Amino acid sequence: MKQHNEVPYKIYLTEEEMPKAWYNVRADMKNKPAPLLNPGTLQPMGFEDLRPVFCDELIRQELDNETPYIEIPEPIRDFYKMYRPSPLVRAYFLEEKLGTPAKIYYKFEGNNTSGSHKLNSAIAQAYYAKQQGLKGVTTETGAGQWGTALSMACSFFDLDCQVYMVKVSYEQKPFRREVMRTYGASVTPSPSNTTNVGRRILEAHPGTTGSLGCAISEAVEAATSQEGYRYVLGSVLNQVLLHQSIIGLETKAALDKYGIKPDIIIGCAGGGSNLGGLISPFMGEKLRGEQDYRIIAVEPASCPSFTRGQYRYDFCDTGMVCPLAKMYTLGSDFIPSPNHAGGLRYHGMSSILSQLYYDGYMEATSVEQTSVFEAAELFARCEGTLPAPESSHAIRVAIDEALKCKETGEEKTIVFGLTGTGYFDLVAYEKYNNGEMSDYIPTDEELRRSLDKTPKFPGCGV
Ligand SMILES: *Cc1c(COP(=O)(O)O)cnc(C)c1O
Known about the structure:
The structure is a single chain. Helix content is about 40%, strand content about 15%. The protein is of the alpha/beta class. It has 2 domains: about 10-20 and about 85-115 and about 245-450, Rossmann fold; about 35-70 and about 120-230, Rossmann fold (3-Layer(aba) Sandwich). It has a 7-stranded mixed β-sheet with strand order 1-4-5-15-10-11-14, sandwiched between helices. Strands 8-7-6-9 form a 4-stranded parallel β-sheet, with helices on both faces. It has a two-stranded antiparallel sheet with strand order 2-3. α12 (about 275-285) links the parallel β10 (about 265-270) and β11 (about 295-300). The longest helix is centred in the middle third of the chain and has 20 residues, at about 240-255. It starts with 9 loop residues before the first strand and ends in a 10-residue tail after the last helix. It binds pyridoxal-5'-phosphate. Pyridoxal-5'-phosphate binds near residues 118, 268, 272, 344 and 388.
């Protein structure tokens, strides 16, 4: 039996100990992430180029590769206090079940109505939109976590919130839709006839159930065609990783309280925002040569951007209206098979994490859906919390690393991000419980076909 009193089961910070500034890991990167390019001119996009689409202060944060700490405005800090600090939990029961000498900790971000870490950036983005005097914001949502978080943030600051929700999710996830509407958002199934791009797609593909890429294109058009509106995005962008650094700063402060240094830090990777946020302060130490950590990104085998993608410039959306970003990508044309970790089905990856991975500062691995749900089930039964399928990718690899420690007898300290809860993912759990879950892994040929369609120009990366 392990003693359960080495550290408290939950390590909390007091309000006083909560971070007062976000940490911008780009400041410590020697090789900065590549700039966004204008798809027409192939020139780096500056402040003025981005202004029609994004909020001014958020563009400044997006382009700022130098300032290490950016103060969190007080209204955002006050909002954070309603659901933060989030607990850092020692997984004593999971360790015991696995019989591992490893020490496992997880940072739990599911303690708010949106059920995920996405609220950390949503509230910041809504705040800056309000500061600028805008009427509202537009966005897209796939599985629905981002749309939910943004609708909460917008209602708090009394901003209009227009969400384009991929039609298949709109129809199959009515509960998320109703949470958004309860917070006052208007939710439109995409493709819709409210935009030119939506009408064009509907004409070309009558009966289509939509895609994330199409919903992005509609949301961008809606923002640029209405006076007083801007477009906001819940992952991938530098500004989002900056806001999410609150996760890593709190984690580090809690570990430091007990003099604990992690050996391995693990997070799931969709567009990279939770992983980037969790690892930022640790990566900073690594980049400055002060400490070393093993950092592992976990992605679905069905959508393997890091492990099988190319590091190159590509479109961020299927409609090709957004800027070009240099990132690990499977091609903006890539449609992942309908796996159940909706939040991890993005063809690209954060430019910051892409550069760090390319430079060898972190590892990546991919896992298959059934083994992810096995890990989710074990975790739920030991630790109580029903994890989101996305988060369960990190659980899978944390368990695998803990089992390796059992073999070698090493007492490693493992920290992973538990990004959210799985209450809206019960159709996926039902499939798993019925033994009907399958794993689809794209063939090399399929990946080659979508990568072949990425834009080619001198300096595109490959
Ligand atoms: C959106 C989401 C993710 C993936 O997004 P990242 O930007 O890669 O963090 C992971 N977990 C949950 C619960 C999500 O909602």
